[in-house]
Each structure stands twice: as C-alpha cells, then as structure tokens.
Write a structure and sequence with these properties.
Blueprint lengths: L3 H29 L8 H41 L5 H39 L2 H7 L4 H39 L4 H11 L2 H27 L4 H34 L5
Helix pairs in contact: 1-5, 2-3, 2-5, 3-5, 3-6, 3-7, 3-8, 5-6, 5-7, 7-8
Amino acid sequence: MWTWNEWMITGKIKEMASDLQDFYLLSIRGLVGIIKKPFYFKDTIEQMDYAGAGSLLIILLVSLFIGMALSLQLSAELSALGLKMYTGMIVGISVIREIGPVTAALVFAGRVGAGMASELGSMILGHQVDTLRVFGVDPIKKLVTPRILSSLVMLPALTIIGDAVSLLGGYYIAVFVSHQSGAFYWSSIREILIFDNVFAGSVKPFIFGYLIACISCYMGLSTKGGSIGLRRSTTRAVVASMIVIIVSDFLLTRILLYVLGFSV
C-alpha cells in the first residue's frame, strides 16, 4: 500500500510530465506553423512592432550603460597591470559573445515575454481562444506562431543594435574617461570581429527568442483561476524565461567552444 506522500509525489511527477509534453507539442506546432498555411501576416507584423520597436529604447539604455560600466571597470583593473590598451578587445569579446545576447534576451523576456503571457492569459479567461476553436481556427497557428516568428526576427536584430550601442558606450569611457586612443580601440574591435566570435554571438539570440516565445505562450495559454491566476502565469513566464536563458547560455557557450575548437 502506498502512503499519502507517495501518492502526492507520484501525482506531481505525472503532472510535471504532462506539462512538459504539452509544452513540447506547443513549441513544435508553433514552429512548424511558420511554413504551413494559412499565414497570418497582419498578426505577425503587429507582434514584430510590439516586440521590436516597443523594446528598442529599453535595449538602447541598458546596453549603453552596460558597455560603459564594463569599459570603466576593465580600464581600472587593466590599468593597474599596465594592460589598459586591451580594454577594447576584452569589451568587444565580452559584449559580442556573452553580455550582449544575454542582456537583450533578459530585457526581452521581462517586457515582451510578460506581455505575451498576460495577453494570452486574458484571452483564455475571456474565452476568446475557445471562440477561435468554435470558428475552426487553430489557436496555435493564430496566436503562438506569429509570436514565435516575431521573436526569432526581432531579438537578433535588437541584439545587434544593443551590441553596437554597448561598444559605443565602451568607446566613450575608454577615450574620454580613461584617455585611451580611439583609433586603437576600434582597431581592437575589428580584430575580434572574426567568424568564431560573430557566429557565437549570432546563434544565441535565435535560440533565446524561440525559448522566450514558447515559454511565454505556454504559460499564458495555461492560465486559470481569474486575475490571481493571470498574475501567477505572467510571473512564471518571466521567471522561467530568465532561468532558461541563463542555463541555456552556459550550455550553448560550452557547445560552441567545443564546436569552434577552443580548448578550456
């Protein structure tokens, strides 16, 4: 005979397995929907505008001050070692490979991911998703696919813009605060713009965008319990997205270092 605790643990495991199965199915169906008719171009453009243009100012501000803070700290530390001329190179590698993609993804999850979850959660509570099913419209194709596609397009674009702004912020600190050569700073940046660094910094935003969109849409569509449930699902979407971003960044960095032939 099983005890009450064993029944509870078994039930939790089954519930978790069911949730993971639903999440994987939603993620795959949402991605496959990009190449299957019908195509909801208007919905996709609206989501791109919300995810891209709406997040641009935040990305610019955060990236600018992160680049400035990184350059300032590195200049102080490297100056004590007599290596201040390497500030631009280290800032460039750090921003392009790691800090830029992760920062943009975290901001994207906090703003766009929360918006996706709350919007879809409101539609669930208002029975709008059930109405779509009544009229023969696939909710995954109509609601999830445009959000996945917009994230796959806009997060890499925002990351590139954020990287450029971070490098500009680092340039300002290096030249006008640490009194380094601006020409040498940009020549150091050009030296690290090799395939390995650019490839590593370009792959991550696509994966982060896909994960953020899938997690946010799943949390939104699984909303239940009124306004409290909506608050809970939105919070879970943001927290889960941020955790997944950090964990996947480590895994991707490890894989890319191995694939690109770097020894650790």
